[in-house]
UniProtKB/TrEMBL annotation:
Cofactor: Mg(2+)
Organism: Rothia aeria
EC category name: transferase
Active site, per annotation: E214
Complexes and interactors: Homodecamer; pentamer of dimers.
HAMAP family membership: PanB
Name assigned to this protein: 3-methyl-2-oxobutanoate hydroxymethyltransferase
Length: 298
């Protein structure tokens, strides 16, 4: 890390005008941050600046999203579905996700790399969570971990934070608890809002640097934002009040086919583009027009 990697970005501990009289204050903007760290997300929230997160599972895509300025890359357990073809996120193991985390870490120069703790790798005890998270950081190079949790797991978050591991706490609809929650259901309805708000409050108090809320009503999301104070929030299917947003990239870019959840917006049709390009390649190979002279060694 270069010495002035984050200069001139003032952080909560380095406020330039106060400490350097006469020096002009550099306005904060995430656009000027060379390497995204937790302090920058806190600062962004304080300044009312929004940030973006996308899932990512490989080196080349990490390079593309990093160039695009996406602030956070999440190696989510959604890799189980979109990368490995499992029916459920519950199936993915640490050994399967770690090589993806390592590949994304090698591709991302600026973005913060956040890795999911897969189902079955942390529930037994805070110690188990620390051991699994340490593998994601040591072998995968992750900068932070995400844990699906509720208020009962505040001790887990505290143990991770005590071990020096930045934590994103995932509340609301938590896909690993699909069976316990009665299926894919929006949370915050039918008297469940208080629980979601309390989960977020307890996990933020335990030291999570970010709260991610999935599939909650807009009103619940607003209450979570209020409850966690200065801690940044990220939404997916949580309306527009969170400080950041996340989507599974294959959904956002139109790679996945079929019915999409209503909270997904497709920003491109990459699946169709790839299919068309593959068809064009096949046609030229079959017609004998590829490779042409310019692709041939003489
Ligand atoms: O695994 C994942 O991709 C996630 C996001 C949907 C937040 O948890």
């Amino acid at each position: 890390m270069s010495e002035n990697e984050n200069a001139p970005y003032a952080t909560s501990t380095v406020t330039n005008t106060a400490e350097t009289p006469g020096m002009a204050q550099t306005p904060f903007s995430l656009d000027t941050v060379k390497k995204i760290r937790t302090i920058h997300l806190e600062r962004a929230k304080a300044e009312g600046e929004k940030f973006s997160m996308l899932t990512c599972y490989d080196f080349s895509t990490a390079q593309v999203f990093d160039r695009a300025g996406i602030e956070m890359l999440l190696i989510g357990d959604s890799a189980a579905n979109v990368m490995l073809g499992y029916d459920s996120t519950l199936a993915i193991t640490l050994d399967e996700i770690i090589p993806m985390v390592a590949a994304v870490s090698r591709g991302a120069k600026r973005a913060m790399v956040v890795a999911d703790l897969p189902f079955g790798t942390y529930e037994q005890s805070p110690q188990q969570a620390v051991a699994s998270a340490a593998r994601l950081m040591k072998e995968g190079g992750a900068h932070a971990v995400k844990i699906e949790a509720d208020a009962r797991m505040a001790d887990w978050v505290q143990a991770l934070v005590t071990a020096g591991i930045p934590v994103v706490a995932h509340v609301g609809f938590t896909p690993q608890a699909e069976h316990a929650l009665g299926g894919f259901r929006v949370q915050g309805r039918h008297g469940t809002a208080d629980r979601v708000v309390e989960d977020a409050r307890a996990l933020a108090a335990a030291g999570a640097f970010c709260i991610l809320m999935e599939m909650v009503t807009a009103e619940t999301a607003e209450r979570v934002n209020q409850a966690v104070g200065a801690v940044p929030t990220i939404g997916i299917g949580a309306g527009n009040t969170a400080d950041g947003q996340v989507l599974v990239w294959q959904d956002a870019m139109g790679v996945r086919q079929g019915r999409m959840p209503t909270f997904v917006k497709q920003f491109a049709q990459v699946g169709q583009l790839l299919e068309d390009a593959a068809r064009a390649y096949r046609s030229e190979v079959r017609a004998g027009s590829f490779p042409a002279d310019e692709h041939t060694f003489n």
